[in-house]
Amino acid sequence: MKCVIFCLCVLLCGIKRVSMVVVLNGVLADECPTSVRALLAAHPGYRDAAAQLLAAAARVVPPPGLLYVGQRELAAVVPHDKNVNIIGSDDATSCIIVVIRHSGSGAVALAHLDGSGTAEAAAAMVSRVQQLAVGYPEGRLELQLVGGFTDPHRYSDELFANIMLSFHRLSVEIDLTLACCCELNTALGGGSAAPLVTGVGVDIRAGDLFPATFPDKGPELPLRGARTITSGPHSGQVLDIYDNTVGLLRIGPFNYEPLRGVDLWLEQSDDFILQHLSTTPAVEPPHFVHNIRVTLKFIQQHPFPAVTVFPDNRSHYYRRDEQSGCWVPMRF
């Protein structure tokens, strides 16, 4: 999906702060590194941590027990959640997948960020994990970043800086334990750059993070994807898709504006769509154009989702089916 970066990185880089809350290699940072290069210059050990992830075998994760988080979405879970075994996301080319984990309780929040709503998402993830970790006096907040590469337009570099600054500005200590991003996640085979890892999963009981792909990305994917290629009041927000209190997947309600020229877009060739609706067309997965077409058709059929998709302004809820392990609609 198109990763459009609305980044205030240049402005933020010029802001000096007295409070330093990002912890690097167990030491409170004097300055927040806003590039992987700067991070490695001061703490080369992060290269080894990234290499361990890159060396791990990628898993293909089936739907049962999976909570999939799409672009501009986040979710938080706890180890004793009977509905979720693995939380994860993939298809992150210039995007970055962010994981916050509380080492004492095992509570995990995961987000797929593309540059929109970054600061708000960082604050929400920390808040959700802190809420879920209540009652566990021991433990620290750990931050793991995966995805993005040295793309031609340096979108991932800007996004990395924005994410680091967003967490640094929060009034809580956060220990960066993994930064497999940008140059540390770039393959240069054949002379063109490509991301090495584009998806990760977290085993919420073991706490392990691993490379992963997810053939099934959950219900109502065209609706969920429509926000990222349209404008509107909710399009730039990173939405929380999981109600932890009742164990239900939650979609919406949200609205977006009609996409001008959607009929014309659908008449274009696959290559035209790839070149114009991706920031990184050379490295998109094979299903990218298909997913875009399905999403465009959904937008064509539902130009006003507040009217046709969420007429009662209520969320669509899905529960975990005990037999199949998959998400099925709740009937009210």
TrEMBL record:
PANTHER family, sorted: N-TERMINAL ASPARAGINE AMIDOHYDROLASE (PTHR12498), PROTEIN N-TERMINAL ASPARAGINE AMIDOHYDROLASE (PTHR12498:SF0)
A biological process term (GO) from this entry: ubiquitin-dependent protein catabolic process
UniProt keyword list: Signal
Name of the coding gene: LOC118272365
Cellular component terms (Gene Ontology): nucleus
Designated name of the protein: Protein N-terminal asparagine amidohydrolase isoform X1
Pfam families linked: N_Asn_amidohyd
Signal peptide residue numbers: 1-20
GO molecular function ontology, one term from the record: protein-N-terminal asparagine amidohydrolase activity
InterPro entries tied to this protein: NTAN1 (IPR026750)
